[in-house]
Design a protein that fits this description.
Helix content: 55-70%
Oligomer: single chain
Distance between the termini: 50 Å
Strand content: under 5%
Radius of gyration: 22 Å
Largest sheet: 2 strands, antiparallel
Number of helices: 8
Number of strands: 2
Strand order of the largest sheet: 1-2
Structural class: mainly alpha
Shape: globular
Order of helices and strands: HHEEHHHHHH
Length: 251
């Protein structure tokens, strides 16, 4: 009883902070979506997009900075693409299967597939056009709001970061995993604006959506942990021992 009480006392501030962050993120996403639908963000979006462009030798607009920066942004944006994220999630699922943590495997799968489905539905409902062709470095055809790369990178990387954070008990290591996940999501989102395929408001909505999804998955994971359905903190790196072989009966 005392152990359970100590556990709740230790984790309550984290839960309260997460609830507060979730509430603020939901409010921010709803407000931003309303502003986009009314066209109030277009001026801000255009100023940022134009600030990242300069006239090229032939008079067309090209990204600012040296040539290698464009190549670097193309590499970074691939980190939020379907192919890379699918391979990453598949690798994590394979590891969880290998150590026989099947419930955690399903949680990762639901988190990843669910985020993609929700993002696609919102894109179709909002149906915001992409930035003008003259600003784009690569060709895209899907609707613009919210940014799928930003949503999926925030949702998947944060979910996996939280999963990895549960494999350790030191706060510094936990902060490292979460920090790396946030850093990757931020870089992917910035690359989408730099390449001219998304407005800044698209990316901000994607980041917010991904954070909301990751927090919801974290709450689900905590609930399943307390029910004993998935592994407790610090247990994910160890596979359960193989059952002892049955002894042959003596003749």
């Amino acid at each position: 009883m005392r152990k359970a009480k100590d556990y709740l006392t230790r984790t309550e501030p984290i839960v309260l902070i997460s609830v507060l962050l979730l509430t603020l993120a939901l409010w921010g996403l709803i407000s931003l979506t309303d502003e986009v639908l009314e066209g109030d963000t277009q001026g801000f979006d255009n100023r940022i997009m134009n600030a990242l462009r300069k006239p090229g030798p032939d008079g067309t607009l090209i990204p600012i900075g040296p040539k290698w920066l464009k190549s670097a942004m193309l590499d970074i944006t691939a980190l939020g693409g379907v192919a890379v994220l699918t391979l990453l999630v598949a690798a994590v699922i394979g590891f969880l299967i290998m150590i026989r943590h099947y419930h955690m495997m399903w949680l990762v799968l639901v988190a990843s597939a669910g985020a993609g489905l929700v993002n696609t539905l919102v894109k179709v409902l909002i149906a915001r056009p992409r930035p003008p062709m003259g600003l784009r470095v690569t060709e895209v055809t899907s609707p613009s709001f919210p940014s799928g790369h930003s949503t999926m990178s925030a949702a998947v990387y944060l979910t996996l970061g939280i999963l990895l954070a549960q494999t350790v008990k030191k706060k510094r290591a936990k902060a490292y995993f979460i920090g790396v996940a946030l850093g990757l999501a931020l870089l992917v989102g910035f690359s989408r604006v730099f390449l001219g395929v998304h407005y800044p408001s698209d990316v901000m909505a994607g980041w917010t959506s991904g954070i909301i999804w990751a927090i919801l998955i974290w709450f689900l994971g905590r609930f399943l942990q307390r029910k004993g359905a998935i592994e407790q903190e610090g247990e994910l790196v160890e596979a359960p021992p193989d059952p002892a072989p049955a002894l042959d009966p003596k003749p």
